[in-house]
Amino acid sequence: MKRARKAMGGRLYTAERRVQEANSQSDPTSCLTAEQRVFTTSKDREITLECFRVGTLREREPHIIEWMFTLVERNMKEHYEACSWGWNGKAKYNEMTEPDAWYLIAKDYANSSLAGFCHFRFVVDYGVEVVYCYELQVEALYRSEQIGRRVMAALEALSLQWKMKKVVLTVLRLNQRAINFYMDCGYTYDETSPAREEPEPHYIFSKPTFG
Ligand SMILES: CC(C)(COP(=O)(O)OP(=O)(O)OC[C@H]1O[C@@H](n2cnc3c(N)ncnc32)[C@H](O)[C@@H]1OP(=O)(O)O)[C@@H](O)C(=O)NCCC(=O)NCCS
């Protein structure tokens, strides 16, 4: 019993240490290959992926934070309003600007247009170290060009690099397009997900990465 408790403590210690190490990097995406950072879409657009801590965006590129928030509002407000969670813009903005937030920004290289973004965090979730994908949003103009898939692949590479057990995300049950997309990317119901017969408006999906 004592030994089991000690082992549990050791596991949690490892999980926290790994999360701390990933979060202490100035750029946790330095492990990505050139092909993962810059790629050509199915419509022949060159897209670059750049990583920022939210604090850096606030200081240097506050317009990107405003764009991200309006994109979430445009893409998601209706979905939130259609389920029991409702839409709370202030709470969403606060969540997006919490200090632990990291961002991957997808830009169209030709004209510097902002094409999409991912808000992710390294966290201990139910005692396990994970990359938590808080948000994945692509501008309507840039959808179905595999940008979302490339971003998820980059997250999975980061998860592996920093020895996180899995990439985890929350998806609304009524967002069938996103459910199809994540399943296409190899994600499935996480053990912590509310079951189909439960009344919650969301599922938790995940994909194992390390160990
Ligand atoms: C979900 C989302 C991030 C996917 O990004 P994307 O860059 O369009 O994704 P990809 O091009 O890599 O893959 C698209 C795949 O998603 C699925 N998909 C896309 N549109 C779909 C649709 N209308 N119906 C069913 N599946 C669809 C398909 O598997 C599709 O592949 P295909 O376009 O080749 O048929 C993007 O559609 C989006 O931003 N949606 C609005 C915001 C959102 O719902 N975010 C997820 C919150 S959890």
Automatic annotation (TrEMBL):
Its main location: cytoplasm. PROSITE patterns: GNAT. One of its GO terms (cellular component) is nucleus. One of its GO terms (molecular function) is histone H2A acetyltransferase activity. InterPro entries: Acyl_CoA_acyltransferase, GNAT_dom, NAA40. Belongs to the acetyltransferase family. NAA40 subfamily. It is found in: Cytoplasm; Nucleus. It comes from the Eukaryota. It comes from Hypsibius exemplaris. SUPFAM superfamilies: Acyl-CoA N-acyltransferases (Nat). It catalyses: N-terminal L-seryl-[histone H2A] + acetyl-CoA = N-terminal N(alpha)-acetyl-L-seryl-[histone H2A] + CoA + H(+); N-terminal L-seryl-[histone H4] + acetyl-CoA = N-terminal N(alpha)-acetyl-L-seryl-[histone H4] + CoA + H(+). It is an enzyme of class 2 (transferase). Its EC number is 2.3.1.257. Residues 55-210 form the N-acetyltransferase domain. Keywords: Acyltransferase, Cytoplasm, Nucleus, Transferase. The lineage of its organism: Eukaryota, Metazoa, Ecdysozoa, Tardigrada, Eutardigrada. This is N-alpha-acetyltransferase 40.
